[in-house]
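User: Is it possible to get a 3D structure for a protein together with its bound compound? The compound here is FE2/S2 (inorganic) cluster. I've pasted both below.
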Amino acid sequence: ITINVTTRDGDRQQIDGQEGSALMEMLRDAGLGVDGTCGGMCSCGSCHVYIASETTLPKPSEDEADMLEGMGSIVEVRPSSRLSCQIILKPELDGLEVEIAPQF
Ligand code: FES
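Assistant: Yes, that's possible. Here is the predicted structure of the complex:
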């Protein structure tokens, strides 16, 4: 599952994701500045990304939506904002375009 990533420096990179793992883990393991401090518990905001493609993702859970809303006073939260720890890679996400949001 190929993910196209725009880093905080504006570099474009392609990373290979494994089905069933969280997008955050892929971004973190690729050394792209996503810390995943809370380990995917939806509580740190360090895995914030903007989804740049039209791909339809499952809607954010209430926890994720609350977290994003709370982050809005500190970083730019867009309609396309997601916490990448909540996005589990599936074959239909092949080619997903994500932009890593500013450090939170
Ligand atoms: Fe902490 Fe996603 S890794 S909110």
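The helical segments are 23-29, 62-71. The mean pLDDT is 96.
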